[in-house]
Design brief:
The protein has 471 residues and is α/β, with parallel strands linked by helices. The chain has 19 helices and 14 strands. 45% of the residues lie in helices and 16% in strands. The chain binds pyridoxal-5'-phosphate (PLP).
């Protein structure tokens, strides 16, 4: 029996009384939505609403009147508009938060975008000769300089950088990967699957917790078709205890002895040493190049603090092979992120990295965070909202410094309904992303950007009061 046969005569009657789509789209309640989305998009949402209504009728509900049906459409309109990217205040305590767009851009990058995005730009033009020039030339020079590499290439993201590196260097050949590094980064990026896509074949070496130089060497000595040793920075998880893997330099030396290349997927890719700020352990791109890695791949929007992008740095000959691979065209960096990346890298070159928001958040002394949160709590108290400072741990995020939580301070907002309060904060304008920990709503002072304090406090006062009133 199909659905129709199961429908009773009464339900048939109800189904017939469901308003028609053209009447619905013309409803006065939807006039504003019609202006904002256009009739076509509104009609699409109205059809979806009517579909829902039909399903409800078949499940035994009454057919909606025209007015009710218009409300159903309005709910879908609201949902559609909410899918647009909106600014948020990040009080989550995770500095590089993939759901929140990772790195906020430095002011210099925002200004560069403002100056170039609305017009034409010399993206692939050599202004001296008037001929076509290479895209990304400045960014690539800067990345090579900042990492001590011979050359660099910028692409769409680090996933693309790794895929491109493996495709250009190892397609049709073998790649050795330690069993301890066959990881999933998140968002479906799994090393073995990316490797398979590159057309290279993976050979696993070692064990989950211990992989020795001899494990790589046994395979290298036995076969001629190994093109690459891939080393992956296992950023987003931690192994401790009975764990061993060779140093990068040893691995590079071994690879070269057997005529293979060492490719490092670094993940974050810091361009400055964070150890003086108590953040030892995040590998930088430069030292990987110095240790002998032939190509190093990293993200531009993790600890580097720039826009979405991926970098490949290393030996000129190999960078050139990746640049000439047909896949390079498919993963090239867009114009807007390139403009932002150039400005970010220019700040590094000029030694102005203190202006980069991710680095500023990472390096902020905990006492400065405490002072800020104390101030928030005082201001909230004046406005009748109970809040107190609380020591917490923030995180770098983006797979960086995973075993290195950052001392931080959060404002705990008194409430008996933490989930509801966090939801109201998310729905505020601007949206505020809090963290719930042990049934408490926490607003971390480390990740809120300078200049966002007043908007944050206003949102908290508004959300707490609305919750109190139950509106
Ligand atoms: C984050 C990460 C990636 C993916 O980088 P995207 O820039 O997000 O594409 C790949 N490898 C490692 C080790 C990472 O940490």
């Amino acid at each position: 029996m199909n659905e129709r046969d199961q429908t009773s005569a009464e339900q048939q009657e109800q189904l017939r009384s469901i308003p028609r789509v053209d009447r619905l789209v013309g409803h006065a309640k939807l006039a504003q939505a019609r202006r904002r989305l256009g009739t076509g998009a509104l009609t699409r949402l109205a059809r979806a609403a009517l579909q829902q209504a039909r399903r409800a009728v078949r499940a035994g509900a009454a057919a909606p009147q025209l007015d009710e049906a218009a409300d159903l459409v309005l709910a879908l309109v609201d949902e559609a508009l909410r899918r647009r990217v909106a600014p948020v205040i990040n009080a989550s305590g995770v500095i590089v938060h993939t759901n929140l767009g990772r790195a906020p851009l430095p002011a210099a990058a925002v200004q560069s975008l403002a100056e170039t995005a609305g017009g034409y730009a010399s993206l692939e033009l050599d202004r001296r000769t008037g001929r076509r020039g290479p895209r990304g030339g400045f960014a690539e020079m800067a990345l090579a300089q900042l990492t001590g590499a011979e050359d660099a290439l910028v692409v769409n993201n680090n996933a693309a950088a790794v895929l491109l590196a493996l495709t250009a260097l190892a397609s049709g050949r073998r790649v050795l990967v330690s069993r301890g590094e066959q990881i999933e980064i998140g968002g479906g990026f799994r090393i073995p699957e990316v490797l398979a896509r590159s057309g290279a074949e993976m050979i696993e070496v070692g064990t989950t917790n211990r992989t020795r130089l001899a494990d790589y060497e046994r395979v290298l000595a036995a076969r001629q078709d190994v093109a690459v040793l891939l080393r992956v920075h296992p950023g987003n998880f931690r192994q401790s205890g009975f764990v061993e893997r060779p140093r990068l330099g040893e691995l590079a030396e071994l690879a070269h002895r057997y005529g293979a290349w060492l490719v490092k997927d670094l993940g974050g890719g810091a361009l400055v040493d964070l150890a003086p700020h108590g953040l030892a352990g995040e590998p930088e791109a430069g030292p990987c190049v110095a240790a002998g890695a032939d190509l190093v791949c990293f993200s531009c929007d993790k600890v580097l603090g720039g826009p979405q992008g991926g970098a490949l740095v290393g030996r000129a000959e190999l960078v050139d092979r990746t640049r000439r691979d047909p896949l390079a065209r498919a993963v090239r960096l867009g114009r807007l992120p390139l403009v932002a990346l150039e400005a970010t890298l220019a700040s590094y070159l000029a030694g102005d990295d203190a202006e980069i928001p991710v680095l500023r958040a990472l390096r902020m002394p905990v006492e400065a965070v405490r002072k800020r949160v104390d101030h928030w709590c005082g201001r909230l108290a004046e406005r009748g909202v109970a809040a107190r400072p609380h020591d917490v741990l923030a995180a770098t995020g983006g797979g960086a410094l995973a075993d290195r939580p950052l001392d931080s301070v959060a404002a705990v907002i008194e409430t008996s309904e933490p989930v509801e309060l966090a939801e109201r904060l998310r729905e505020a304008t601007p949206s505020v992303i809090a963290r719930i920990h042990e049934d408490r709503v926490l607003l971390d002072g480390r990740t809120v950007l300078p200049g966002e304090d007043e908007a944050l406090l206003a949102a908290v006062v508004g959300a707490v009061k609305a919750l109190g009133k139950g509106t």
